[in-house]
Amino acid sequence: MIKVNEIFYSIQGEGSNSGLPCVFVRLTYCNLRCTYCDTGYAFYEGREMPLEDIISEVKKYKCRLVEITGGEPLVQSESLELMKRLCDDGFDVMLETGGSLPVKDVDERVKIIMDFKCPSSGMEKKNLYENIEHLKKTDEIKFVIGNREDYEWTKQKMEEYNLPDKCEILFSVVFGELEPVELVNWILEDKLDVRFQLQLHKYIWHPETKGV
Questions:
Q1: Is 177 helix (H, G, I), strand (E, B) or coil?
Q2: Are 113 and 96 in contact (CB under 8 A)?
Q3: Domain residues for 122?
Q4: 209 domain-assigned
Q5: Could you tell me the CATH number of the domain that includes residue 153?
Q6: Do residues 114 and 138 touch, judged by C-beta distance below 8 A?
Q7: With 70 as the cut, is the pLDDT of residue 31 above it?
Q8: Cα–Cα distance for residue pair 43/49, rounded to 1 Å
Q9: Which residues, listed in sequence order, are joined to residue 110 by a DSSP beta bridge?
Q10: Contact (Cβ atoms closer than 8 angstroms) between residue 122 and residue 33
Q11: What pLDDT sits at residue 51?
Q12: What is the pLDDT of residues 46-83, one digit of tens each?
């Protein structure tokens, strides 16, 4: 049994699969409390569901791309089996994780999107950098940047852990805190080998809309 906050069908708003139709399975619970969190409703709300029921619900949308998100999916150890089962059934599975819990046991077929926390999140000390050792070239590391301090800190971490050689690096802004053009200008000035992204769903729908 896994506690699920919501299952919905939308477009992927971030990362290299941005713009593609995707089924999202948002699991309940999170071990972090980021200052800019936009899914606080997933901290506790949800219903217990057997794995079979979750997979059956996902299959109804007839969409191959599936993202397991939260909250923090890895808080519930059963999420590992859920991802394995989805991969076994032929889905392209992604995991959105906050980078504070181990990913070493995640099925190798799963695309990991790891969101390391910048200083303005208030959760920087929770980052588990050992996770970098378990990332594949096809995985992604995301930095959500709220100000210049976050940006400089991110550059330092990229160099310290040689991140551009590990996997794709994603930069995005804290929505409403940093103007996208500022971050883009910094990236271009420093000639960084990163992918800038916007949270598409916040521009297509109202930023506080759930289930998109």
A1: coil
A2: yes
A3: 2-204
A4: no
A5: 3.20.20.70
A6: no
A7: yes
A8: 17
A9: none
A10: yes
A11: 97
A12: 999 999 999 999 999 999 999 999 999 999 999 999 99
In a domain, 212, yes or no: no
Is 6 part of any domain? yes
Does the pLDDT of residue 177 top 90, yes or no? no
C-alpha distances (whole Å) from 178 to each of 112, 151, 183, 184, 188 are: 26, 11, 8, 11, 16
What tens digit of pLDDT does each residue of 121-168 get? 999 999 999 999 999 999 999 999 999 999 999 999 999 999 999 999
CA 184 centroid distance within chain: 21
Q: Residue 211 domain-assigned?
A: no
pTM for the model stands at 0.93
Of the chain, the percentage scoring pLDDT greater than 90 comes to 86
Whole-angstrom distance, CA of residue 175 vs CA of residue 177: 6
Q: How many domains does the chain have?
A: 1
Residue ranges with strand state E in the chain: 2-11, 21-27, 47-49, 65-69, 92-97, 111-116, 140-145, 168-173, 195-196
Instruction: Give the pLDDT band (50/70/90) at residue 212.
Output: low
* Rg, C-alpha atoms of the chain: 16
> Are 31 and 75 spatial neighbours (Cβ–Cβ below 8 Å)?
yes
Per the structure block, which two tokens stand in for 61?
Answer: 């949308």
Pair of tokens at residue 9: 């069908």
Main-chain dihedrals φ then ψ at residue 176, nearest 5 degrees = 85, -5
